[in-house]
Structure formats: structure tokens, C-alpha cells
Design a protein that fits this description.
- The protein is mainly beta.
- It has one domain.
- It contains one helix and six strands.
- Strands 1-2-3-4-5-6 form a six-stranded antiparallel sheet, with helices on one face.
- The protein is globular and about 40 Å long.
- The N and C termini lie far apart (about 30 Å).
Length: about 100
Amino acid sequence: MIINKKIYHLREKEKLDSMEIRKKGQLRFYSYDYKIKTDDGWRTLVRWDNFQQQPHVDSYDDNGTLIQSSSTRDKNLKEILELIDIFGKSIVTMDITEL
């Protein structure tokens, strides 16, 4: 089993934390957390993961309160980085299950 964790610093006060778990070369679990820097530290705005083999996306407000949790199709790291690059912080206000 291989666990790969990376932090991508995107813009000032924005980053993406990624974690992928592979077993025998196959991706078994992923979690991509888009975070913003606040006075209190880093706060997750959007999380994509496939917990229990169920791909979904969670959106949070600036206080860290869950706004929405929806099923979505599997996403890979490249797709997530492209979405964040295009939409930035406004991604929270969008129906990201369709992206």
C-alpha cells in the first residue's frame, strides 16, 4: 500500500491538500481539500473524496460549517487543480457536482 500526500500552494492564501492511497497500483482512496488561509489557520472550503467507494464533494462556508454534500463522479488530481485554477474561491457558490 502506498500513501501519497502532497500540498499544492495555488495562490496567496489558497492551497490544495491531496492524499491518495494506492494498493497494487490501483487508486483505492483519494481526498482533495481546497483550503483558504484565515486568521485562525487553514480552513477547508471544498473536499472531494471517495470515502467508502462513494465519490462525493462537500462544500463548507468560511466558518467551516458544511453547506452541501453531494454525490459526484470520480475526479483525479489534475481535474481538481484545473477547476480551482479556473474558478478559485467562487467554486463554493457553484453546483460543483456537475463540473
